[in-house]
Every structure is written in structure tokens, then in C-alpha cells.
Specification:
homotetramer, alpha/beta, Aspartate Aminotransferase, domain 1, Aspartate Aminotransferase, domain 2
Chain lengths: 341, 341, 341, 341
């Protein structure tokens, strides 16, 4: 059975497992003060071209979103996000549990927050004389790629940054699948650009070849985020496990290579499905593809490929999500396409 | 350099690494719905002799304490703990961050909450007519072993349970180092006893041979703890990583064996130090020993053994913590003792 | 200048001021344990025809909404509300500050949550297999009248109650302007009905003739709400000030009389404006009227009547809110209408 | 029956009731944007000799403590307070409900935090290498007078301020009974001094002659405290009710006059009791006196005077609290003393 159901249901890249195995027998400094973590952070700072960046390694995405937002917001502030944003939908209210409202905005079909919509919201907000009785926008949350496979352009990010400057908002980018964004042939967003534009963003490990782990990159030094991390249950006792994974991911371009593998497979799938006349909703340049398959096509793939049904339609067709990853092979994609012929 | 500095600074038991490596290539159900997790939970239910127990796998201790307490307390309730309890001191206010006060009580030299002190507090609390203006005690938190190597007796736990019943308190036991308590020759506390007496307790993995992971055991079914876990950032996307570790730990008695290794080393150390006339403060039957070493002895161990200095004294002596673990060997202990001769 | 700008910008009904003055010199029991409060609660229980109701007196609406919701929700639960609901818009995130998400639903033009929309949401929620990753609906919040002058019918409330029973939700009704709802000639909702259908509702004082105060009525005994009230800063030291006001409000039908005065004025205004051909958006049977006035009409009222402009339109017309209250007189309404002729 | 049971069980000073009655019929701007509030704030700024002070009017003490602390602390910070401090004991965990730990220190018999103890704590805290795992001290809370009738000296406050500067702590003074401190003949603490030394303090109304209300004085402008106030349920819709009370309190020296009346009565009582050989525990220069009465003396006062029994002793004697206020008369004190003769 070929598995395109998701990108976080399999262990880690062999390089990481090897590093883990090699390190298994020697004591390490705890709580992230180990050499692996130091090296990983140095490599990330170098990759982001920001020697002053403050890097922290956390375990998972929801935890990271909540810990970062709780640290960068003041109590009366909320965070703006697309209505389809992960923090708005699928984190069981983790952000609200820290006391902050998620303020949702409409987004495009890719789940991207448009600069125009953001600006319109902010203008409307401050034009309303009752705004002091409302939750103040304090930060903007975007995911790149989005939950729907959308990718921001550098121009869009620059415009979001400009709006954030204008309205004293912090810009926070959730990069749970960042490897697939960076490896996508389409957009022009790079790590150094993120390091310059975002107050804070993170480099996803869990979905991009690691067992677990997200590397949070603050543009500037945070005096107390270590304590904040501990307080939110987001500090790993054996932090070197995260350190050695990110050290490996940022050695010899592995992170990008893993991303490229996922994206290449996704694009190979996209091309193949396109050739078969399959429509997409929407089409994506990331590792997630959202084709609409007919009942007959669905039947052909049954028992052969695992993927998520997102929306069953009256005529038996369905909008599905096919998610490739660093682990997917071209041969698997070809087998999927062959099954459809 | 022999390392007795702590029990969470090294990878995992070989059995766990083997299981991890073996499982690395196959997709698994996510969020803990995988077969490893199901087997691990079954084995834990069996070990606790409670088929109705509800078991959840979380990543680390602070996260577990906060997630569990937030779930079992009502907003106006606090949790009673020894003043030296981990939640009261070393979790950066994780419990308070969920809105609950940690109500501290004096404890004995082992950091154990005495039933008498608990009862006295509760009597005093409800005798004070202003108590509705105070934080209501809603749960009792104990750690076993304690942070100071203390071990509860079955009789003490039964008495704590009785008090909890009398005052409608939930009993929560932090078993971050539970393997070392269960393996200690001294006390008579078993998993089935904990399963009967505690509303909820956890079986520590991080300090007892796993890379990470704590298995929370609720005496009764919890309808929404999965969502609570997610909300607190304590749900691992690749939950099978926790599942396969606990599956291995509860196969063929590994968990107890690892605990015994740590405790045997600690007792071997204790006997050796005793024979050298070294005093303890306090003496412990767990994997943590707290000898008071002279300046000369400290010098002898310098560059040979790593351990924590807890309290330097005026005469150059120091109260130290020597912490053995599943990874420590009798040969290492013998080398420590030899260095002191 | 005639003031129709809002219903909480003037002191209290003369009966309340008299009671306050009369009581000013004698010591009272504190924190609501005084005789006035006891009598007020008895009268409210009688009016709600529920001898077992548990009544608490709080200071203001936002505080009441947050304190009640924090008490009736579990940490992983959110509260469903109309997107235009007060807790969703104009309370600066007070509910989120207690850790709970406000889950918003579309509403009708009156800001009323329709039973059909509620049921559709709940069906959709539990049909989505990812729902354990989402915020669980734990309560339904409605306001009666709504922020837009809407009034629920008894039938609609009964249906909402049935849905709440089906989905284990608590039903919470914000009655900040309840006097005007009870006094409205239209709908058939009475205090006893609210006492039967709502898990908890409140009888607004601040907007209905009191200096301040909201009387919260729980259908069943709450063992710790006093402490919850204290914890949320919602317990008045001189609680007798609230007690004596509600005692007066529930003596000789004053509360309803004050409500009727506000509604009668509003309906007189509505009839007069209708006669002048003024359109409404929407028309209301409560004390708030939402006429759309032409530029010429707006000019005629300038310097004579104070009211809120809600939406200025391109042609110079505007949707306005005219809010009468227990303090408004028929003569004032007639003067407004005369000014428009 | 003479009432010395507490200072918040009676209405308000006649001047305030008169102001309230006079204002009862005219509409006012809402939420504190009225003329009374503006005047009250101006007068308070003048009295504190800080034209840049930012003044807010809240309803009660617990609410004020929680709202202020939540606004001035960062999530990982706690507040240092005497173990007997009101926020540590009698506010049902209001501060913890906002996510912050109350870090308690020992205090003197008057419940005063000593600069030496504070400094020792802070030195110890930062000397402990595990401090990043602990709650960071972010603010110091003191009450003046304390809950036990203690009064700080200007020298002590200056020293606390210096320590706060050294350790980047905010200094917050709870002045729920401030009138009695300012009017006490003993200490040299004035409003301008508080305005200079405290980041924020408040001028208590509830216990000092008002129906309700506390005036919070921030040394510097707070851009969003209005929203914070709303969020914590601490913004009164009819804020002019607070404004007119503080306007009256700060007109013609009323606030100090009311304070002096309370203190004069307390000192008259103290002198009288001293003359009768009654011991104190401790003796106070504020409006609260803590004599130890014999069984016989207690009997003599039964049915004549109401006061609080704080601690019954084996020999039938008791430590009691006798609390005078702005409302107490010299004649009442004389009657109490006469009853004891």
C-alpha cells in the first residue's frame, strides 16, 4: 500500500536515525545546552543569514505556536490568522488556553492571508470608535506553506511586513512544512528572507524528516524564552535529541534535499494527474496536492493508495488530499498514476 | 569521566533504540492511534491490574503535570504539594500558567507530604471562616520517588487516599522516576496499588530508559483528555514513537529491570560510601543518593566523576547528589568508590 | 438635548436611590451575606418560580459573562455564540482571557442564533473526524434581547434547550437588557421559562434602572461559585449595594415597570418613524430601534437628540441606533418625532 | 451595637451620597469618559504631584490587583509578596487565574516585606543555577497599610524601589486602606512619594469612604490599560459613578479627613486599651488594632461591640481585630472603653 495520507506518519530520515544511534551511549548536557544543539543553532543562524538570531528547539507544532504567541503577545492582544489557519481550527484552542483570541480573516483558496485583506481589517478596526472594547491585533500568524498547499511570494511577505510595521504587529510564520516551501520551484522565499521579515518563524522538523522537533528562529535575542518554553511544557529534558536532528538536517543541505524529494514527488503526481485530465482544487506547488477524483478513479486506487478524503460529492467524486513527503519515491508516484490508467 | 550527574542526559535503552530503528520505515497511524501505542496501553493496564484504566502517552514531565492538573481541577481549585515538589519549584510556573495555584505544605526531609500534615492543613482550612475567599484545595500532588529520593510506603499512600476521599480531593502521583521506586527493595508500593489509590499517576519514561515519554494512567475513563492533551501542546504527532518505547519498556519486564539497574547501582554506592564513613542527608533507597563529601573527597573525584553540588559548606565539604540510572554500571560505581579510597 | 444614545449612561431609578440613601448609615454584612441580598435572591427565585435556583449578584456584564463561562466550561470547551454576540466582539477578549474560545456562528439580522444553524454546526462538528483536535462546544451563549434588538420566542428557546440536551451543552442567556425583553409586547418569554430552560441566565441591572449589578440565576445549586466570583474580581465587598438595588427592582413589579417604560418609548418612536416612512434595519420590539435616517432627517435632529451612528451611507443617510430606557419619557419621544416633521 | 468589625460594611461618606444624588438625573459619558472622572483624575494627578500619571478607576481591590498584575507582568514572571499579603491568601487565586505565580516571602509581624529579605531572596534566586526553570520575579507587591496594620516608612519604600531598579522589578503598592496610612501620624509616606517610587499604586475607595472604587495610578502612560480593564471585567459601564466619588474624595481634602477620622478613633482606642493594660499583637498606627483581650473583657463587650476574633487562646483570651473607619466616632470608642472598665 502506497501511503500519501500525510507527512508525519513515518520515522525520520536515515541520516537522523544514524546520528541518534551514534549518540545513544554518551551523556549530554540537558535542556538543550549540549553540543549538538549549539551546532544546530549555529547552522540555522548561518542558513538564515542572521548571526543575531535567537534559536530554540521545541517538540511539536501546536506547542510551538502556543508558546511563541504567548511570549510575543501582551494580554489584551490577539493574533490575526486566516480562518483556515491551523491555530484557528486544529489546535483544540491551544492559543486561547494561553488567554489570547485568534482573530480570523478570510483568506484566498490557498488559505493565504492577503495583504489587502489584512490592511482592510486593520483600517476598519481602528476606524471603529469602539475598538478599545475589542481584542487588539498584536501579531499576524501565517503558515508557509499553508494548510492548503499555498505558498507566499516574497513580494506578499514584504507587504505583510510593511503592514505589521505600520500597525505595530509582530509577524509570525509557521513553517511546519517549511522544507517543502523552500524546495518548491515556484516561489522566491528563502530562509534569509524569512530571517529578515519575520519577528519569529519556525523551521518544521516533524513533517520534514525528523522524528519530532521545530526550530524557532527569533530575529532578535529573547531574554526569557527558555523559561517560557519550560512553562509551556515545551522544553525537552533530553534536548540533545532535537539538537542532533537539526544538526543533521542542516548538514550538507539535507533539509532542502528532503524538501525537494517531497515536492518533486508532488509535482510528478500533479503532472501525471493533469495529463489524465484530473482537476485540482486548488492546484499546489507544495508537497500537498488536492485533486478531485471521480468515483471510478477512487475505486481504482482503493486498496493500493492511502490518502485523505476531504469532501465527498454527490456524484461519487471526491476532493482528496495526496500528501507526499521526504520519504515518498518517484516509483510510488508512478505506481499511483499507473493504477489510474 | 563517570557520569552520575542526572538520569536524563543519555539516550535510551538498547531495546528501545532497536524498536525505533526497526519501525523507522513503515507508516503508522498518527496521534497515538497506532498499534504500538495500543499495545503499550494494554500492557500498562495489565501491569496496573486495571482493565478500565485510561492511558495516555505524553512527551515530558512538566507538560504532563500541567496537562493533568488543568484537566482534573476546577478553576477555583489549587493543588496541594510539598514545598519542595517539582511543580512548586522547577517548572517555571507551568501549573499557574493554567490558572491554578500550587498550595505548598511543609514536608519531611525526603520531600514527602505526610498524611498528618495534609490532614492538619485541611482541618485548618475549613475551620477558617474566610476559606471561601481562599483557593480551594482540589488535588494532592506527590512524587514517588520524591525529588529528594524519598519513597512513600503503601500505608502512607492509603492514608493519603483516605484523606482525599474525605475532602473530595483527587490524588495525582508524579512518577517521573517510577521505575526506581518500583525497583527499590524498600517500600511496598506496586503498580496495581497505584492504579487503585491514585485518580491519576504517571509512569516516567524520560528518566527511566526512554528517549522521552510519560505514560499517564487515569483510574477511570476520561472523555476529553485527548483534546486537553492537544490543547496543552502535549500530543505528539508521531505518537507511535512514544507507543513503541512504552511497548518495549513493558515487554519482558524491561521497565523494572532498568529501574533495578539504577537502584542497585545507587545502593552499591550507598553501601560503599557508608563503609567509608560518608554521611548522607538524607539517605535514600532510590536511584538518587545525597552524600556529604569532605573537601578531600571532592578533590579525589574531580575530573573522574560528574555529579551535582547541592550545597557547599564553610569547611569545604558539600552535600552532593549522585544520581545513577538504568545506564549506570556496577563497574562505574566501583570506580567511584575506588577513587575515594 | 434628548438622549437616546444608550441605556447605561444615567444613574438609577428613584426607588433605588431612595433605598441606597436610607441604608447608607447602618453597617451590613459584607460580600453579599446581608439581608438585602437575601431578600433580593428570594424575590428573584420566586419570580423565576424556581425555589432551588442559586442566585449571585455581580457588578457588570462583561465580568458576569467571563465569570459564568469560566465556571461552567471545562478547559477544552468553548462557547458557541452569534458572530455579533457581545462576548465575541465587545469584551476585549474577556472569555479568551479565561482560556476559552468563543466559537462563532452566523446569526439572523437580529443577531439571534437559530436552532437550525446551531444544529447544523453541531452535526458538522461531530461528523468531522478531526473534531478531537478542535475546540469542543461546551455551552451556548445567547443574549435576550440581542445586541441588535432581537427577541427569542419561547419556541426557539425550547428548541435551543433541546439541542443543548442532545449535545450536552449548557445554555447561558445574557439578560443585560432583560427588562426590555420581558416587557416587550411581542414575545412570550417569561422569567419562569428562562428559569426552566437555561442552565444559567442573568437579569441585567446596569441597563435596566440600577447603578450597576447583574443577578445571575443558576438553575441548580453551585457549590463554589462564590469563590469563582471572588477569583474573577466579581465579588463586591459591599455586596449589600447590589442586594438593595435588586431588592428594590423586584419589589412591586418595579423591574418590569422600568422595562415597560423603555419599551413603550421605543415602540412609540417606532410607530412615529414608521408613520414618517422611515425604514428600519432591522425593526425591533425591544428598547433599541435601528432606523435609517436621511441626511435631511439627520440634520433636523442635530443639536436636539443624541444617538449613535452605526453606518454612514454614500447618499448621506445613516443607519442609527436610538436607544430608549427606563428613564426615557413619552414627551421626549414626541419631541424627537416633532423635530423630524 | 457598636461596629468595629470592618471598614467596608457601610455605605459612603455623606459628601459622596450627595454627589451621587445630585448627578442621578443627567446622562453622562460612559466607561469613564465623563467629566467627573476627568476631574477626579486631574485632582489625583495633582495630589500625587505627577502630571504624567495615568489614572484608572476600578471597582474593587481583588479585581484591581489581578488586572494590574496581569498588565505589568510578562507570562513567565511572578509577583513577590509577603506570605500574609492579600493576593497570597484572600483573593481565591485571582492572580494565578491570570497565569502568574505569587512568590511568597516571610514578613515581619506587621506583614511588611523587608528590603533585606527581598534582597536576600533575589540574590539567592539568581545564585541558583536552576533559576531559568523557576518563576522569574517580575514585580513586588506590598500593601500600605498592610493587612496587619503595618506601615512602611519612606526609607523602607526607597530601599524597596532601589532593589526593584537593580533587579528590573516593578513596584506595585496596594492602597486599599491608603487613607488610613496617609492620615497616620507616624510614618512619612505621602502621595507624591508613592507617585515617585511606585510603578503603580492604588488609592482605595471602598474601605475609605466610597461605596466602591479604587483609583489606580501608573507612574507612566499605559497605552492599553483601558482594554486590559475591560478584559478583566473591571471597567464599569457607568464609570461616572466612580468618577464622582473620587472627585468628591479629592475635593477639599475629604480623603485625608476621612482617613484621619478612622485613624484618630483607632489611636484613641489604642490609648484607652493601653491604659487598661491590654497588650497588642502587634500594635498599629493604622485604623486596625489587634489587642489581646481576656475572657472577662470579651464577655464585657459581648452584645455591645462587634469585632473579629482572630485567634482564640487556651485561657479564654483572644487576639481580636478592632477596625475603625471614616464612619467611627470618638463617642463610639469611648463607649467601647467604658464597657471594659
Amino acid at each position: 500500500m502506497i501511503d500519501l495520507s500525510c507527512d508525519y506518519n513515518i520515522g525520520c530520515a536515515p541520516e537522523l536515525l544514524a546520528a541518534l544511534s551514534a549518540a545513544n551511549d554518551a551523556p549530554q548536557a540537558t535542556y538543550g545546552f549540549d553540543g549538538f544543539s549549539a551546532r544546530a543553532k549555529d547552522k540555522i543562524r548561518a542558513a538564515a543569514e542572521n548571526p543575531g538570531a535567537d534559536v530554540y528547539l521545541l517538540v511539536g507544532g501546536t506547542q510551538t505556536n502556543a508558546a511563541v504567541l504567548a511570549a510575543i503577545l501582551r494580554p489584551w492582544e490577539g493574533v490575526l490568522a486566516a480562518a483556515s489557519g491551523h491555530i484557528a481550527v486544529h489546535e483544540s484552542g491551544a492559543v486561547e488556553a494561553t488567554g489570547h483570541k485568534v482573530l480570523t480573516l478570510g483568506a484566498d483558496e490557498y488559505g493565504r492571508l492577503s495583504p489587502a485583506a489584512l490592511r482592510a481589517y486593520l483600517r476598519g478596526f481602528y476606524a471603529d470608535p469602539t475598538y478599545p472594547h475589542m481584542v487588539r491585533p498584536g501579531a499576524v500568524y501565517i503558515s508557509h506553506p499553508t494548510e492548503l498547499g499555498g505558498l507566499y511570494t516574497a513580494a506578499a511577505l514584504r507587504e505583510l511586513r510593511a503592514i505589521c510595521d505600520e500597525y505595530s504587529l509582530r509577524l509570525f510564520l509557521d513553517g511546519a512544512r517549511l522544507a517543502y516551501a523552500l524546495a518548491s520551484p515556484g516561489p522566491d522565499v528563502t530562509l534569509p528572507l524569512l530571517g529578515r521579515l519575520c519577528d519569529v518563524f519556525y523551521i518544521g522538523g516533524t513533517k520534514c524528516g525528523a522524528l519530532c522537533g521545530e526550530a524557532v528562529v527569533f530575529r532578535e535575542k529573547q531574554p526569557c524564552f527558555f523559561s517560557a518554553q519550560k512553562q509551556r511544557g515545551a522544553l525537552m529534558a533530553k534536548g540533545f535529541l532535537l539538537g542532533l536532528q537539526f544538526d543533521a538536517l542542516f548538514t550538507d543541505g539535507l533539509y532542502l534535499r528532503l524538501g525537494r524529494q517531497g515536492v518533486d514527488c508532488a509535482l510528478r503526481l500533479r503532472e501525471g494527474l493533469r495529463a489524465l485530465g484530473v482537476p485540482f482544487a486548488p492546484e499546489s506547488a507544495s508537497n500537498q496536492q488536492f485533486p478531485v477524483l471521480t468515483a471510478e478513479q477512487l475505486e481504482k486506487l482503493r486498496e493500493k493508495v492511502r490518502f485523505e478524503i476531504w469532501e465527498r460529492r454527490a456524484d461519487g467524486s471526491a476532493l482528496v488530499r495526496m500528501c507526499s513527503s521526504w520519504h515518498t519515491t518517484a516509483a510510488e508516484i508512478d505506481a499511483v498514476l499507473a493504477a489510474l490508467k
